Amino acid sequence: MDYKQYIANKIKIENVGAEEIMSAIALPPNSDMGDYALPCFKFAKILRKSPVAIAEELKNNFATDDVISEVSAVNGYLNFKVNKSGLADSVLNRILNEGDSYGSSREGAGKTICIDYSSVNIAKPFHIGHLSTTVIGGALYKIYKFLGYNVVGINHLGDYGTQFGKLISAYKRWGDREEVQKGGIHAINDLYVRFNTEADEKMESEAREYFRLIESGDKEANELFEWFKELTLEYVNQIYKKLNITFDSYAGERFYTDKMQPIIDELKAKNLLKESEGAQIVDLEPYGMSPCLILRSDGASLYATRDLAAAVYRKNTYDFYKCLYVVAYQQNLHFKQVFKVLELMGKEWAKDLVHVAYGMVSLEDGAMSTRKGKVVWLEDVINKCIEKASAIINEKNPDLVNKEETANLVGIGAVIFGALYNNKIKDIVFSYDKVLSFEGETSVYVQYTCARANSVLSKREGGYKIPQNYSPNAQESEVIKALAAFPATVEDAAEKYEPSCVARYAVDLAQKFNKFYIECKILTAEGDAADFRLCLTKATLVTLKNALTLLGIGVPEKM
RNA sequence: GCUUCCGUAGUUAAAUGGAUAUAACAAGCCCCUCCUAAGGGCUAGUUAUGGGUUCGAUUCCCGUCGGGAGUACCA
Question: Which H or E run contains A528?
């Protein structure tokens, strides 16, 4: 039931269409006033009457019915109350029938969305700076799937550049096969850090030579590179598994090595390429941007060149409806340039490329720096969160079965949720105090609410069904209204590329449920109330689970 | 310098142009013979600044101040 549409269709205003009325309908600040409101101020000019008079007149002409039970005119607002009994009945029926597909839709059927996210660098361990792109991308992946889109998750590996020459140089100088095999990614990173602290001009040129050898297909250099890549992927896949992240493609920068020349040829043919200070550029001066560098003065390709090739490849391969790049706002200009160049090349689909920018992560004492070793590794954060969850379980619920599994769900949930709760554009100053806080607006709060709901439901022997014509009280109505809002929340999150909408929704619903839970006895309620409240509890559990699942967060039965 | 993003309680943040700006954390007080206290209740406390558009601005536009990011051969 679309209440806004229903109301809009019942209201007739001279020279104003139903569409316009519907878009004007808003939500009152508190539910004593009503469930929907129509501010009448903007109609004052057209009707040449005061908003107060208009509201009054509309009220008198509005016949209440089974759907809208009450209408009132207050200070130029026309307020509507919906029939709570009917709303409760339809919402509960829908949720209990649809279960884990409640909130999903087919709106994306037949459309493909590519999402470029996480995009790890080979030979570098995962630090907290990589968390946002990974979990935002991962959540968008799940949200779009839920809405029926065909989704292609792309890990655009950072596997190209002179740093790999440096790495090989460092390995040949100081490395030991067994040590690296055993120490994995961190052993590789140590070599890289050491190279950067000790390198002189001679070593730098050696590194450039090794990179050239990789490029020219030298056997030894490539074997080493592939080995480093293998160790990296082994390591990141463990983390992805914990975070519930999946990919459909690992085509990284190197993948586009042989796909850049056609782009360069096309740029030339379209007269877009020109020489400047020895380099080949696309001039973007008319668009207020610095030029997009395509080839360096030594003829080598650049980041932008590979992104142009990647965009064209993705369009040809997947024929996407949209292609998302979940990359920090640091690269705003880069994407603006790449998108503009594609537009100038005549690719009409350049409009479907979206840079989903998010804020940067820093430490309390400033920016992170891998080269200086000033970083917080993600695996340490995950482990600490799990440890804390484990300690709390041992203290509060030592007899819990599945203690370890529960601690994992709680700890990892806190890591993911912390990165998804605020608007993605906000910068984050990382602190252990914040991620390790398991109270208030957190995933732990939501999971705890689910555990409470589960506990209540498990105590009821036999079934329960939705009672007919039950009139919900204030707390129950608040939960019902929140439950009804879930499908629109998911759509909103997709439209804004903003998983925090879903995270905030989960906390909001949990808060309303907890207020209901404290105020209203469920199991010992009289008559229809017990059945109704059990259905409400079940529906809340289903919806909270659906919301957390979209974020990649699991829900323990008990905690 | 130029481009761009951000500025809301002590802190971290919410709020399709709508009514009395909403939560959490921290602070103070209260609630476990009662469905899980990782919970609930109460108290106190906020839109940087000057204009403009509007019946109405945290939201849109212009300026100022403060902060982040970017600004040619790194990614």
Answer: helix A528-551
Query: Which is catalytic among the residues A124, A347, A355, A545?
Result: A124
Catalytically annotated residue among A10, A81, A84, A127: A127
**Among A30, A24, A27, residue whose Cα is nearest residue A44:** A24
List chain A domain ranges.
Answer: 3-82, 261-300
Bridging pattern class, strands A361-363 and A428-430: parallel
User: How far apart (Å, rounded) are the C-alpha atoms in residues A211 and A53?
Assistant: 78
Residue A517's nearest nucleotide, by CA–C1', is: B35
Global pTM reads 0.96
Nearest-5° Cα angle at A310, A304 to A312: 110
Give the CA-to-C1' distance from A51 to B19 in angstroms. Answer: 13
Q: Is A244 left (phi over 0), alpha (psi -120 to 50) or beta?
A: left
Q: How far is the CA of A294 from the C1' of B12 (A)?
A: 42
Report the distance separating Cα A233 and Cα A239, nearest Å: 10
Judge whether A124 counts as a catalytic residue: yes
Q: Which of A10, A130, A156, A481 is catalytic?
A: A130
Q: Rounded to an integer, what is the distance from CA A443 to the centroid of its chain?
A: 15
Indicate if A130 belongs to the active site. yes
Nucleotides in chain B near protein beta carbons (<7 Å): 3-6, 12-16, 18-26, 35-41, 55-56, 68-75
Domain A3-82: state its class. Answer: alpha beta
Q: What is the largest CA-CA distance in chain A?
A: 88
> What does pLDDT average to in each consecutive run of 10 residues of chain A (559 residues)?
89 86 91 92 89 94 93 94 94 97 96 97 92 98 98 96 90 92 92 87 89 88 93 95 97 94 97 95 94 94 96 98 97 97 97 96 85 86 97 93 96 97 94 94 98 95 88 95 96 96 97 96 93 97 98 97
A369 φ, ψ (degrees, to nearest 5)? -150, 110
HEC-encoded secondary structure of A152-217:
EEECCCECCCHHHHHHHHHHHHHCCHHHHHHHHHHHHHHHHHHHHHHCCHHHHHHHHHHHHHHHCC
Q: Whole-number Å distance, CA A514 to C1' B35?
A: 12
